[in-house]
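retry 2 of 3: previous attempt timed out while embedding flavin-adenine dinucleotide. Reduced batch size to 1 and resubmitted. Inputs unchanged:
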Amino acid sequence: MQRLINTAIDNSFGLRVDAQEAWHIAFDSDLPEVIQTLKDRCSNWLVVGDASNLILPSQLPLAVLQDTRKTITWEDDQLVAASGCAWDHLVAAAVEAGYFGLENLSGIPGRVGAAPIQNIGAYGAQLSDTLHSVRVFNTQSMVYEELPANALRLGYRDSLFKSKEGAHYIVVEVNLHLSSVFTPNLSYPGLNVLLAQGRSAPDLTALSVREHVLRLRGEKLPDPRIRGNVGSFFKNPMLDSMQREKCLSRDVTVYRTEYGFKASAAQMIQRSGLKGHRSGGAKVSSQHALVIENLGDATYEEVVHLKNEIQHRVSDIFSVWLEPEPQIFPQ
Ligand SMILES: Cc1cc2nc3c(=O)[nH]c(=O)nc-3n(C[C@H](O)[C@H](O)[C@H](O)COP(=O)(O)OP(=O)(O)OC[C@H]3O[C@@H](n4cnc5c(N)ncnc54)[C@H](O)[C@@H]3O)c2cc1C
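retry 2 succeeded.
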């Protein structure tokens, strides 16, 4: 167990962030003692993986908790991964071992423990397709618990953990149920190219799908090591009939989902004339309007200002209030 005082927190947006303290601990054994210590001191905490979905202020008045464990264990087609394990390492290990269902989620930055928080998803798949259960530490009752996937209210970039009722859980381990039979999921239009290139479904391997997804991601999204970012900054919104009309009249793609009609937030931002728009060192990416980039010296205040500008401009034009995807502290 290691406690660091006044320490910098690395984050994919590249903001300068100093936390009051950071605890690098083993979540499966150290949490009861550390949480009790923080409670006794009346200190608040924030659990952090790689901070690839967080926008944090320069002075973070909290104790940051990070899991040092990176273990993956297998039992037949059940895979149990520690929250500190890198997500893409887990995907690569599963594909290599001949267990399938994660390949479309290749290349998503971050740690395993954060994956259920927003039910990570990409290229026609989401974590909930394979999630069996999570082991959590309940910071109210101070005990470890097992929560089945169907108790987690997993939705589009959403889960129980994002709500008030779930905020007291810390994810310790994730238990996935994978398949030993590879069935390609090519529901995402960009992946159909694999078939169009002359490969029939039986010729495809999970590795070729993974490699294609990694290539598509590299072409579409700015690399956070070059231009800091948190991936998609806003969720695609659900629409009522009036909002739908406004989107269609401005040539914004509207599509039907099992919950109702949704629109492309990227197109709404673009049609609002905001692609390339800047607030100091924060900029709406010229590559992808859903991404806010750090030009190198962006501050937390500039990012929040740009986010607010986008929300207001899009609301004026489409009567839709875009909801951010990353957690913006302290909102
Ligand atoms: C270039 C880029 C591309 C991206 N593409 C995608 C994508 O395709 N699909 C997608 O879904 N996301 C995407 N993201 C967002 C991000 O990668 C995911 O949300 C990822 O799961 C965040 O992992 P993390 O470890 O960085 O979490 P952090 O950013 O550290 O934390 C995110 C949230 O989870 C909470 N949290 C973290 N760990 C735990 C834990 N163990 N227990 C309880 N709460 C916890 C944090 O408190 C915070 O609220 C992208 C980000 C970037 C930078």
